[in-house]
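User: Show me a protein chain along with its predicted structure.
Assistant: Here is one chain, sequence first, then structure tokens.
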Amino acid sequence: MITLYGFGAGFGLPEISPFVTKTEVQLKMAGLAYRKEKAKPPSSPKGQLPYIVDEAETVADSTFIRAHLEAKYGFDFDAPLSLQARAQAWAFERMIEHHVYWALVGARWVDGDNFAKGPSHFFDSAPLHLREKLREDAQFRVAENYLLSGLGRHAPEEDVDLAVRSLFALSVQLGDKPFLMGETPCGMDATAFGALAGILTPFFESALRQRTEQFANLTAYVDRMMLLYYPEFAWAPVQQAA
């Protein structure tokens, strides 16, 4: 039995982290039995979630977890794709994880109202005399990484404008297909779903969410993926919620 370590449900999502969501959906895609445990990033070998324990082996980072699952269990997440399509899927995945994701981070962590509503509660169990300092330090570290990503160097509206260009590329790629690369989901769909659901959750209000809601095919895609992989989760269709 594989054990997946993540943050757990929250923020109106079945899993708080887009990267843990990615791995969990890929486990579901592969039909692999797993159990899920809550953890905190310091418990991971790389200081980040997700990580898995598979028999005697511990694997951290969602991309390396995928490689482990493919190597050990012989499941090809991109089986229907041509060599060219595999290359395109990889490029889109990098765009999502290194651009769209950081726009999500800005909306959640750098925006003061959203930070207070969401991530600040990660520290609710800390000793009272340390709680505010831990919150301030965590927000500062994330804001510093956001700056280093490049997006944080721009005004908030410029940050969103740049993110929307990547969302437009995803919308064009999706078109009227059920999944990003065709009729069946591939590994990259797990990545896209995790990030897009994280942006579209009604828990947070942001300009990024408002702009993303304008891509009707992306909102329908998130609804479709949620129903497919988390049918038990109470998720209101995005357009209905909007």
